[in-house]
Amino acid sequence: MAGEEGTLIMCHSIDAWNEHLQKANESKKLIVVDFTASWCGPCRFITPILADLAKKMPHVIFLKVDVDELKSVAEDWAVEAMPTFVFLKEGKIVDKVVGAKKDELQLTIEKHLK
Predict the structure, then answer these.
(1) Is the pLDDT of residue 1 over 60?
(2) Active-site choice (11, 31, 43, 60)
(3) Residue 43 annotated in active site
(4) Exactly one of 24, 31, 33, 40 is catalytic; which is it?
(5) Does domain 8-113 have CATH number 3.40.630.30?
(6) What is the model's pLDDT at position 114?
(7) Where are the domains of the chain?
């Protein structure tokens, strides 16, 4: 995991997803999972904002999953709209934000860091 603080971690395979998720859960840090799609306009809009948040918040782990690339992961997590942000702590879902809502995203992260 070293060297990945402050970055958006793109998961391109089920193995990578499982590995990152397991390490993230063990770290006991807040995890923000961005379920995205290449064809989704709002997803493209929010990506640089998310990257910026990741830089500013190295104590939060940001994982990114393309729903077309990892369909089964999106299905497992009941993702129906893009972007969907799922907030996790130690393997448990603590919150969810659906849509490219910059302010809500930031407020939700701050809420769970307290």
Answers:
(1) no
(2) 43
(3) yes
(4) 40
(5) no
(6) 83
(7) 8-113
